[in-house]
Every structure is written in C-alpha cells, then in structure tokens.
Amino acid sequence: MNCTRSIFITFQREGIHCWPDAIQHQGVEFLAHPHRHMFHFKVELEVKHNDREVEFILLKRELSGLYDEGVLKLDKKSCEMLAEELVGYVVNHYPCRRLAVEVSEDGENGARILCNT
Predict the structure, then answer these.
(1) Domain count, the chain
(2) I want to staple 56 with a disulfide (CB 3.0 to 4.6 A). Which of 6, 7, 21, 31 is the partner?
(3) What is the percent of the chain with per-residue pLDDT over 90, rounded to a whole number?
(4) What is the domain extent for residue 105?
C-alpha cells in the first residue's frame, strides 16, 4: 500500500487589502478601495512517520507567528500571493515534502497552491 501521511494546521488573521485594478472590472469596483477580511490560512504538510515528526501545534505557532512579525503583509496582495509567500517559507524550512497552502477571505473564497517539492 502506497500512502502519504500529512498534518494540517489552520489559523486566521484580520487584514485590510485592496485591488487597485478592480476599477476596470464592472461589478467589483469597490475592491479597489481598502477593505477588511478575516483571512483564513490552511497548510497541509507531508510527514514521514506517525510519531510527530513535525508537531502540528509547533508548526501552527511558527507559521502564524510569521504573520504576527509582519513577514506576510497584505497591502495589495491577493489570496494567491499570500499563499505563494507562505509556500516559499515552508519549502525552505521543510524541503522535499508534499505541501498544500490555502488562503481564503472570510472562509468563503480563496486560493490553493499544491506542491510536490
């Protein structure tokens, strides 16, 4: 049997962002102005064995702490951009693993990046 093991963590952060180019898209022009969301993050990471190779509470603290320290800044970034930044960090610190990073606005709509590193 060929199985892959993974753990996942989630966290949320309040943020304000905007999409300046939204003024060119009828019906969503309001997105060009700064607006608030609760951004929901989910990271799934491959682990090599079942005995806490990567402890998920520690992983959650590590990754959510990046946002607290200002590493992930919203500015004009989309969910896709936030997910890509987080992928870059995780790949550098936990190489050679399958990985999925999801970022959504208010738990409704968002982006997902899947990697086989």
Answers:
(1) 1
(2) 7
(3) 78
(4) 5-116
